[in-house]
Amino acid sequence: MKAKTILSFLALTVATTGMQAQRIKGSDTVLPIAQQTAERFMALNPTARVTVTGGGTGVGISALLDETTDIAMASRTIKFSEKMKAKAAGEDLEEVPIAYDALAVVVHPSNPVKQLTRQQLESIFRGKITNWKQVGGDDRKIVVYSRETSSGTYEFFKESVLKNKNYMSSSLSMPATGAIIQSVSQTRGAIGYVGLAYVSPRIRTLAISYDGKHFANPTLENAVNKTYPIVRPLFYYYNKKDSVSVAPLIDFILSPAGQEIIKKSGYIPMK
Predict the structure, then answer these.
(1) Per-domain residue ranges for the chain?
(2) Cα gap 61→38, rounded to integer Å
(3) Which of 38, 75, 96, 261 is most buried, by the most CB atoms less than 10 A from its CB?
(4) d(C-alpha 240, C-alpha 254), whole Å
(5) Could you tell me which CATH class the domain 102-224 is placed in?
(6) CA 252 to chain CA mean position, Å
(7) Is domain 3-100+234-264 in CATH 3.90.1300.10, yes or no?
(8) Which of 88, 44, 27 is nearest to 251 (CA)?
(9) Which of 14, 32, 16 has the alpha carbon at shortest distance from 24?
């Protein structure tokens, strides 16, 4: 980080003595690092008050437009329709990339399938492949779990894996990442997708290939060296009129200390 930026960060940290409470809302994917960096920020600045809640990217951006949150967490870029709403309301939003995340495709631990191509994933999530035996697994119906439409993870998976084609109508929409993990862990034929930091022994990840030849598992190392293909940036959005009040918090998450928290949490730092 440049010396000028560090000095700016230190000055803004001192300025938090009279800082108003900050509200962060949105993406469940961003939620863990938002909570951890906010906790560390408050520990360094005892007078600061930061609240962090999830609900999905769309919920966070809507809250930002309604001025019921100060920062929106997002796992996708802002939509054109959301930009138009902001413009109509006379609001000027700023986008700040804070980290990267790998999206892991997960199945029940008993599933013998180890890898899938992007084309196979597209066919599964669009309802063209309906039985695991069609991709080398057991004779078992595939149960597709997805996030709800307000989720940035839902949007990114649709864009990157489905190439903007629609999900199958019978996919089961889950309100949060935790619900997908729970459902997949309890359903032998299940498949779903979660942020890399949410991966646990309760579910198993699949190696993925976009070219049909080179498969890679969703790990931090593979995401950093770009061998794993399903990787996306994560963002904070805020209203430019609130720049002064949100700057200390945003500068902290982008600082070496904040980015180290991000790395230790299983996400990919900006640098």
Answers:
(1) 3-100+234-264, 102-224
(2) 19
(3) 75
(4) 18
(5) alpha beta
(6) 19
(7) no
(8) 44
(9) 32
Residue 15 has pLDDT above 90, yes or no: no
The tokens describing 43, both together, are: 């520990």
> Is 3-100+234-264's fold the same as 102-224's?
yes
* β-strands 172-174, 143-147 pairing: parallel
- What is the CB-side half-sphere exposure of residue 37 using CA atoms within 13 A? 31
b/e sequence 83-94, b meaning 16+ C-beta within 10 Å: eebbeeeebebe
Residue-wise pLDDT for 23-54, tens only, equals: 999 999 999 999 999 999 999 999 999 999 99
DSSP codes of every residue in 168-188: PTT-EEESSHHHHHHHHHH-T
How many residues in total does the chain contain? 271
Q: pTM for the complete prediction?
A: 0.82
Smallest CA-to-CA distance from 60 within 233, 190, 181, 238 is with: 238
Burial of 235 (0-12, 13-18, 19+ CB in 10 A): buried
